[in-house]
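Protein in question reproduced for absentees:

***
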Amino acid sequence: MENNTEKPKSDFKLESYFKEKFDITSKRQGRNSRSKNEVEDFQFKWTIQLKLMGLVSLIFIVTTAAIITFASIFFRRDARLRIEEHNIKLTELIGLTIQEQLNLTVLKAKQMAITIEQDFKTEEQKKLFTKLFFDTDSDIVFLGIYSSEGVTDFKYLNAVYNLEYLKEKNLAEIDFQNLIRFNSDKFKEVLNDRLVIQNLSTGQKFPVIGIAIPYTRDLLKHNVIIAILKLDKILKAFETRGITETFMVNEEGRILAHPDLHKILSVEDMSKLPIVIEMFKSGSGNGQIRFKGEDRRDYIGNFKKVKVGNTGIIATVREDLVFSEVYNIQRRNILIVIIALCVAIGGVFFIAKRISNPILKLLDATIEIGKGNFVVNIKPETHDEVGLLTENFIQMSKGLKEREKIKDALGRFVNPAIAELVTTNELKLGGDNKLCTIFFSDIRGFTAMSEKLSPEQVVEFLNEYMTIMVDCIDLTFGIVDKFIGDAIMATWGAIGSLGNPAENGVNAALMMRNVLIDFNFKRKKEGKPAVKMGCGLNYGPVVAGQIGSLNRLEYTVIGDAVNLASRIESLNKPFGTDILISSDLYAEVEGIFIVEKMKEITVKGKSEPQVIYAVIGRYDDPDPSSPKTLAEVRTLVGIDYDTKKFQKFNPNEEEKKYEIK
């Protein structure tokens, strides 16, 4: 026995052929026709209405999307430029206003300091002059002169107070002196002849800033002016203007003025804000950047440096607020597009329906023809190209009906594949050299069986038997060559065949074995005798083509390979087998099928002994009960094999076709 341990890969799936005892009829129908659901799905997905509506919708959407996109890009660019220009002008204006106010405050503070140092004739004169000063500049609520020796704390020398402000805020003069003392370290830079501005609002209920102004200086002594200002006038310049937020910081990045009073009173540190960092490191007096804030939103920022006190004006605006109108326009445009698209689709649907209805009827008629129903119930509905197409389609269906009748009649006498080639004029007189598998099968004891049956019963039995056998050949892509009484001759590869012709032929024989087992089971229930068969297969070169006269042709194969297949089939009886194959065929399928090597034989017409093999089954048969030895096959199909009788068998009886060694 040839029993390779390694099983080669094969495209054959045994389950697909042996499932449900070879439900051949349903398989053949599934192979030759498309289910109604598949056709309906095809129709739904690819109707002309959907194509037209899809095309118009796509063009409409792409066009409008391009217009909206480009319009939005230009609008965004324009909005950005406008807000940047606005913020530049705003920071310039506020910067100039603040710079002018601070310069004026510094000038008035120095003038008042000079006046304070003078001797007034009377105390009443001093109060009158002080009141006049604070009435003239109501923003200054305290002005004091301090001295500092070296780096020690500032020493109070003299001061004037806005008494009305003290009364209004319920403050005392000592409160301002304490405020200066507590924040004296913030004004140290004034000793380097620099004007220093600090927010002194910490712990206060009202916003105030302090300005330290260099006054007089000698080698040992520094006199400075420290003025405290309320922010009423300054804050007016920082009132919220639309979506832009402006504020003022000192050289440390601390808030001096802001629309949010809480940020002023808490003296919020803005030094880590990207726009503030950019302002301090920039060499120019103004500039702008795009940055991401602490809230992870994008901002557009502008700055303007104020020369007085190294302060700066910052203007920021959120990008989403800048582009909010752009987004509103986009939403409105999209809504308009949706409305217009719905109207367009409605119009296209109406027009497409008028165009496609006749075509859909043609499609239904085509599907019916594909199913084999050549009687179509359609009429031309229009007088255009579609109407002409319908008329010609009706004529075509009539021609196909006649052709199908001829092909059906022809297919009852020859193989349907050959009938198809004949009706299409693709099969010419003559032959071609082919490599194919040749199959012969025969019913054992048919002569004795037929003697017990009437002619009608013989024909009925043969028709039933041939039907299941031919189905096995069809399913494995074979061609029935001819019927010779109870014998069948078939080929694989003579006419276009799928897969491996050698493997397909053996598969067909195995299928025949299994369907015959079921066939016999049915006959046993009916009290009829079992049927046994023998199959012989060979693989080799043949001449395939139409052979005969011009008046009577038959498509067949001839050659030495055909003769050998016939001889091999006749060996099943003495060998006690049901399927035998030649060594040439085995070479094509080695490792796919489980086989058992038989004794060499000498066949008439062959000078060399021939090796043949009995087919047991497939290696990849998923059925664990499938036979694994020849003895199991004999038991399965009911072959009574007597070894002693086989040894006495005389192969020279009648025609000498073989010699067993």
Observations:
- The CA atoms of residues 453 and 459 lie 10 Å apart.
- The radius of gyration is 54 Å.
- The mean pLDDT is 80.
